Amino acid sequence: MMAVYFQIPHADKDQAKALGARWSTELELWYAATDIVAGRLAERWKQATPPTPLDTFPGEDRAFGQATRLYVDMIPSSCWLTNVRSSVSADDWKQISLGVKQRAHRHCEVCHAPADNANKVFLEAHERFEYVNGVQVLRRLVCLCSKCHGATHYGHATAKGQEQEARAHLMHINGWNSAELEAHIRSAYALWSSRSFQQWGLDLSILTAAGVQVRLPSQDERLRQGVDLSALRT
Fold first, then answer.
1. Of 34, 201, 35, the residue nearest 132 (C-alpha)
2. First to last CA, the chain
3. Of 205, 57, 62, 30, which is closest to residue 143 (Cα–Cα)?
4. DUF5710 domain location, by residue (predicted)?
5. Which of 103, 140, 142, 151 is nearest to 124 (CA)?
6. Mean pLDDT, the chain, as a whole number?
């Protein structure tokens, strides 16, 4: 029989495995390989339609952001919740995320490491923006491992108590000493602070050119997530 896919929450994965479900790394979905297993899973979870990976974004600059191998790139506070995941449907994000990972052959595009679930190293799709003429422009989508992703979002890593891991990874990947690391972090914070003083337009045209519908979070949605644009200093 053809594989039958199911919408199984992460919290239920052990139960699904016990019933015979298998994990598709390519599609990031649980599936049944036999009618018997499909029947068992169907009693508890809904079937899912496998997503079609999206890996081509017209106008994308695949070389953008490669001047430094790994760098701190904190999103200005005035741009929180304008990331791709917050601006597209869950189904579209799944297609984008899968496509970005598959075209990178499921390896981090910075350190070239594969996913390592046993050591909690996962692959994630990450946006690289350029801030120019008052506009936050999406230039590129890149596949990063969770270590490189955490170091890139250094401020978030610090808030989660993972600062030392992020610092060690930045030094390891770039071959930096402590002084070079400190200089880079100071520069990144200064840039983040200056950008956070203003509001930015948003250009996600490489997504819309690929047929993805963009829907930005409303002001109320951003407020519920703690993003108060009225508090910005201009």
1. 201
2. 61
3. 62
4. 4-41
5. 142
6. 90
| Per-residue pLDDT tens digits for 12-62 | 999 999 999 999 988 999 999 999 999 999 999 999 999 999 999 999 999
Q: Which amino acid is at 168?
A: A
Q: What DSSP element (H or E) covers 196?
A: helix 178-196
**Cα separation of 92 and 177, whole Å?**
41
Q: Is 113's pLDDT higher than 90?
A: yes
What is the pLDDT at residue 233?
43
Q: What kind and span of H or E run contains 157?
A: helix 154-159
Q: Which of 154, 234, 151 is nearest to 194 (CA)?
A: 234
List b or e across 44-58, with b for residues whose CB sees 16 or more CB atoms inside 10 angstroms. ebeebeebebbeebe
Dist. CA 225–CA 50, nearest whole Å: 30
Query: Parallel, antiparallel, or unpaired for β 135-145 and 123-132?
Result: antiparallel
Helix (H) or strand (E) holding 103: helix 90-103
The tens digit of pLDDT for each residue in 185-203 reads 999 999 999 999 988 888 9
Q: What is the pTM of this model?
A: 0.85
Q: Which of 151, 148, 147, 98 is nearest to 125 (CA)?
A: 98
Cα R_g (the chain), whole angstroms = 20
Mean pLDDT of 65-80: 86
